[in-house]
Each structure stands twice: as C-alpha cells, then as structure tokens.
Amino acid sequence: MKKNAGSVTIAKPIDPADFTPQFKWRGGNLLCERVPLQRIADRAGTPAYVYSRAAIEDSYRQYRRAFRDLPATICYSVKANSNLTILRLLARLGSGFDIVSGGELYRLQRAGIAAKRVVFSGVGKSREEIREAMRARILVFNIESEAELEVLLSEAGRVRRRAPAAIRINPDVVAGGHSHISTGKHEHKFGLDWFEARRLYLAHRHSRWLEWKGIGAHIGSQILDLRPVRRLVSRLAECARELQREGIPISHIDIGGGAGIRYTNENPVRIDEYARAVKRALGNLRCHLLLEPGRSIVGAAGILLTRVLYTKTNRGKTFVIVDAAMNDLIRPALYAAIHPVTPVHREFGDVRDWIRGDVVGPVCETGDCFLRDWPMRAVVTGDVLALWGAGAYGFVQSSNYNSRLRAPEVLVDDRKFRVIRKRETRADLVRGE
Q1: Which end of the chain is more exposed for a tag (fewer CB within 10 A), N or C?
Q2: Of the ranges 1-15, 129-143, 296-310, which one carries the lowest mean pLDDT score?
Q3: Active site residue 287
Q4: What is the CATH number of domain 3-52+300-429?
Q5: Closest by Cα among 76, 73, 132, 74 to 101
Q6: Is residue 421 classed exposed, middle or buried when 0-12, 13-18 and 19+ CB atoms within 10 A define those classes?
Q7: Portions of the chain given CATH number 2.40.37.10
Q8: What is the pLDDT of residues 381-390, one digit of tens each?
Q9: Per-residue pLDDT reduced to its tens digit, 253-281
Q10: What pTM, to 2 d.p., does this model score?
Q11: Cα dihedral across residues 4, 9, 13, 18: positive or negative
Q12: Which of 239, 287, 364, 369 is catalytic?
C-alpha cells in the first residue's frame, strides 16, 4: 500500500511501537512501559497526553553519556514540554534549562529549580522579564539585539549588579524540518549578524554592569543532517577564538537545540553521532559547552490518546472522526507535521479490512485534520487510538479554541501511572472573564 501524506511516502501502515522502545505490544494490547494504554484511556478519559518516564530519562542520559568527556551542560528547552513534573524529573537528573519567557522562569521557580541553572533566550524579552531574571540570578542572558542589551544594562545598573550575558549570533545556516522551525538564516528574526555582535562585544568589554560569558546560536529544530550542525559549531568556535584574542573572556559557547527524532520514515542521527560531530567542529577550543535539546528528550516519549467518535464515507472517501482536535495538537495544522496513528488494541486474526482514511477532529475548521488518506486498520466508534511523537510541542501549544477543554497529562512509571495535570473543567474556560 502506497500513499503520499504531505511530503511523506508511506509504503505500509506504520506501527511506531516498533521503534519507540518504551511502547510495545503485549498480546493484543499496546503498552506504555508496563501499563496498557487502554487502561489509561478508560481511567483518565480521552483525549489525554501520556508520557513515559523511562523514555525521558533514557533520552537525557544519552546526551549526558555522549558529552561526558567535555565540560558541557544540557539545558533542556522548556518550551518543548513545560509540565512541572517533567521539569522536576529532569532537574533531578542534573539538567540545566533554556527558557524563552518570564512564565517559563516562573514554572521553574514553582518546580523548586535554582535559577543558576537557567539560560534565558528569546528575541523579545520585556523589561519586566529581564528584571525578574536579574532578581532571580539566572546563569546567562542570550542577547538578540542592541536594544535588548541596553535594557539589560539599565536593569543591571538599577540593582547594581553585573548581568551575565552572551550574544546569539545569526550564522546564516539553514536547517530544521519546516520553515516555521528554521531559525538560523539572515532573514529570520533571531540573533545578530556577527559583525554587529562583535562590535557590541568590544564596545562593552569594560562595562561596569555587564559580564560577557559566552556566545551562541540556534539554527532550528528537527535537524536530521549533521552538515549544518558542523557548520554552526565551526562558525561559533571561530567567533569565540576571535573574541578571546580581543581579550573578551568567552567561557562558553551555546550551540542551541539537539538532534531530531523519527515521526514516520525520517532517519535521525544518533545522539552519539551528533556529539562526535560537535566535538570535531569545536577543535581545540577551550570552552564550556551549552546545548538546548527539547524535542529529542521528550518528543518520542509522549503520545496523544484519542477515541473514535464516528466514521463515515463521502463518495468513497473515509473519515475517522476522533475526540482530539487541532486545539489539542496543532502541529499538523501549523507545520504539516505527520503524527502516525495506531489503535491501542488489536485482535489476532482480525478480519477488519485495512482502509485509507482522514483522521479528523471535531473543531469547525477544515484544517482540523491529523492525517489524510492514512493507511490503518478499520476502526469503529469507541476504539482508542494513539497519535505518536506528541511529547514535544503538543500540550504546550494546546488551546481552548471552540471552547474545548484542554487535555490531562499522564506520566507512566513502570507499572504505575498518575495524572500530572488535570483535565480542565468548564469553569476553567471562563475563569478570569
């Protein structure tokens, strides 16, 4: 069976349980670790996000092992999945954190995580956010404009304390799986041209209220090719050496996000291969390394459970209507992202025919479609399905569009599971109005 879904050619129905180790079949039941997903759906309801603790820990530890022979800090990208329980889990493993808003700093503070483990990135930090981060004494600010630097200097002078800073340069390197998640080209809003950044480093090398810490860049997300990574790291190393020769005490370089993950037929680089490429590109540069993986730590660790409401056929076209929608998982509508779907129960010797159908949600938008003409076993009302690769940029981008309640989040730990975020109520919908 061949089908083109967006830019993906599917040769046969995909069972992501085959390549996500913490999800596996036992008999006719699909399990997360040792918990049947059907049991979670029955108890927590659907739609619901489900995460494997073991998968998150394993991915983080792969980074730790891969960079163990370098002075390096893995700063988990909070925007990928900001649930407090997951933040605490990663903090216990020794993770640092990359944030892009004052709200994310607040989450870390609520989780009891020390601000000295926090890197503050983002192109539009407000004065209030900078003030909060100065007060909290974060590790470093990644500066993205001269105007932002002036605000930081102003706030540092106000509290009479030097601000730790680095500049995010725009290396003009193309990468990322979609134009919306590519961030390293000159036409993108992020970072500064190197010559402008160099001017600022030199102009403020003796500043009373600024302490230069490093230099960084971020070229995008879902990177599946090591060539742009090598170009980025080589460029950053070259810039760091130049600044060091000029007497700027550069103590770290920040190379941005980590490796991509598999959603369908991608062939992502292994984390150890990614690490080797980074090390070779660094050469003999003596600097602490910061990296900011998010998707590759939590993406494959999570699924979105949903239940079939109805099926129908219009002029030979089949629709599978489920209770999850674009407000729960917007990536297909926003990025044309492909999240494969698998029923969580199968009968041996099942005589149901395989179909190709559109998996759609209840939201009143044509764009509320998870998959088009997708090969799958025929399903009926009440069947529970798993949408794969939903651990990153899933719940964090969810909304209340169409006045729908946001889904709960569930963490599985071996034989047990617990709700780590409750399903919203209708009272939550109008809270504050």
Answers
A1: C
A2: 1-15
A3: no
A4: 2.40.37.10
A5: 132
A6: middle
A7: 3-52+300-429
A8: 999 999 999 9
A9: 999 988 899 998 888 999 999 999 999 99
A10: 0.93
A11: negative
A12: 364
